[in-house]
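Exercise 3.2. Students should predict the tertiary structure of the chain below and write it as structure tokens, then compare their answer with the key that follows.

Predict this chain's 3D structure.
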Amino acid sequence: MVIGFGFSSSGKINLENVGPELAIDDLELFDIPEPTIKENSIEGHVAIHDERYGSLWTNIPYDTFDQWDASQAKVRIRIFKEEQLMYENELPVGQSFQDVNLNQAILYANSLQNVGVALNQNSFSKAFNIGYGFNWKIILEKI
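Answer key:
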């Protein structure tokens, strides 16, 4: 199977002009590690940056909080870029953004039912210069 279609919706460029076709066998898949769950901590990755709102989406399933009974509690959060600590704070776990004040950070269940980190009516990513990808690690600790 080969990826490439040879047309564009605008009619201004053909995909052949963008670059060579790629065979499926030439694509490299990345191993996405599962979150590490311990008695009092969970380690995962900042997997997605929600460009529209500036929220961070992790690869940590939200239902792991059930194991902690941490709903309506606070969780210590640390975010690292590689080994450098970029953010640390204690955040509430909320059901909606109305659970916190304007510009206050919150942990919540995103639409994928994973843990999300956001600022109410602001961009968490821009406010704290946080990115996403394999080199962005997040650790949640039960308080």
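Discussion points: The first helix runs from residue 64 to 68. Residues 80 and 117 are 14 Å apart (CA to CA).
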